Description:
The protein is α/β, with parallel strands linked by helices. It has a single domain, classed as TIM Barrel. It contains 8 helices and 8 strands; from the N terminus they run βαβαβαβαβαβααβαβ. It has helices at 17-26, 42-52, 80-97, 115-134, 159-169, 180-186, 190-197, 222-231, and strands spanning 3-7, 31-33, 55-60, 101-103, 139-142, 174-179, 201-206, 237-240. An 8-stranded parallel barrel has the order 1-2-3-4-5-6-7-8, surrounded by 5 helices. Helix 2 (42-52) runs parallel beside helix 3 (80-97). It is globular and about 45 Å long. It binds the ligand O=C(O)C(=O)[C@H](O)CO and magnesium ion. Residues 35, 60, 103, 143, 145, 179, 182, 205, 241 line the site of the ligand O=C(O)C(=O)[C@H](O)CO.
Amino acid sequence: MPKFAANLSFLFTDHIFRERFRLAAAAGFQGVEYLFPYDWPASEVAEWLKAADVEQVLFNLPPGDWANGERGLACLPDRQGEFAEGVEQALNYAMVLDCQRVHCMAGLRPWAVAEAELEAVYVANLRHAADRFATIGATVMVEPINSRIDMPGYWLDGIDKALRLIESIDRSNVKLQLDLYHAQIIQGDLARTIEENIAQIGHVQIADNPGRHEPGTGEINYPFLFSVLDRLGYAGWIGCEYKPLATTEEGLGWMPK
Ligand SMILES: O=C(O)C(=O)[C@H](O)CO
Ligand SMILES: [Mg+2]
């Protein structure tokens, strides 16, 4: 049975951030992930993890100006200095939090820039991030996000595109973050997508579609997909990145015991 991590940017959001670690542990999660830790000193977050006895599974590199709509920097030609600074900041947090995975968001497509240039910048940035995170044995995740419903304009919005870029980046610590909710919207065919790419998958995230709520509230057959992951020997984490329909605790009935 896969290991489930609570995404604290989505779950337990009726409580302040630091409380969510304890609530996740009480609900049976052994790992947590979330978007960004940078509003809090790394040492404080480390204390919350320790007090709750949960593992830090994943967080994201700094995404640029999130409040003003930015969604990552990795493909943006005029932001490479800021990207590299973000890598150092995230590396420090990863060390203190003992975290082995970070997600690097690609950014929104700047329409005036040619695709070949965006790809070249993205590949160079990901190689840099991969080499820096290799120094602590951590993996950099590449996640295709649907640009139709949730993140209009997101540049990295195809599974095949992500796989092709991972091949070009050519670093063993760059892996696919397969968010099955986005994958369902992007292309469907989820079991085959998992099976064909299992060697590249470093992290999985889940939510049902439509609505991005708990597994079991929509069209995705999660019990079947969990059995596919088990059969293929997936030993990584599954991040619960969904919006609970009511409270998080009330919506945990889908989770296999
Ligand atoms: O949106 C998602 O699915 C993510 O996993 C990103 O980390 C951030 O938006
Ligand atoms: Mg995701």
